[in-house]
Every structure is written in structure tokens, then in C-alpha cells.
Amino acid sequence: MKKELIEDLGRVLTKMRKRKLMSQVTLGAATDTSQMTIQRIESGNGGGVRLETLFKIAEALDISLAELFIELEQDINYHDDTSYSAKLEKLMKRMSPHKKEWISEIVLKIMGAETEIA
Description:
Largest sheet: none
CATH superfamily of the domain at 3-74: lambda repressor-like DNA-binding domains
CATH architecture of the domain at 3-74: Orthogonal Bundle
Shape: elongated
Structural class: mainly alpha
Number of helices: 6
Order of helices and strands: HHHHHH
Distance between the termini: 35 Å
Helix content: over 70%
CATH class of the domain at 3-74: Mainly Alpha
């Protein structure tokens, strides 16, 4: 697994565990793994997670693997979107008012074209 994907998976699992008001110790006990293993998975350290372990975690969190992967995809998309937004914001702050206006017009034209296509 790619390191970034492993970190994203860990972040999603942490969020889902906390939603269920479970500690790492409780989740570890429910999956026959140690708290250290849960901590390693959630932090994205250690190279990845076995599918069997992932299945046990999903089962303990009362979700399907499909639900887990859907949440993972949504989380990745959200972070990608905020990453682009942050980059654009930084770029726009450095631009002159004239360039900001020019960029805004271009973006609006592109968005208008996309809505016409859809």
C-alpha cells in the first residue's frame, strides 16, 4: 500500500472508532489484536494492514468493508479538495488585483462551459 493511502486509512479508522466511542484498547480486544497494533494502523506506521485485520476492525465497528472504503474515498476526495483550495488561496493572495480579476473571469467562463455541457 502507498504510504499516503495507509495514512488516509488510519485517519478514517480513527474517526470511525471515535464515532463508536471506542478506545484503541477496546477495539483491539474486539478484534483479537493489541492496542499497539490498532495504534500503528491508525497512525499509518508499520507498512499497512492485512485484509483479515481490516475485516475484523470493520466488523467490530459494525460496518461493512464497502462502507469503510466508501468513507475512505470520501475522506481522500475531501482532503484533495481542501489541498487544492489552500494552494489556490495562497496563489491568489500573491496576485495583483488585476490578475485576480482576470483569473476569476477565466474560472467563471470555464464553469459556465461545464454547466452547459452537463
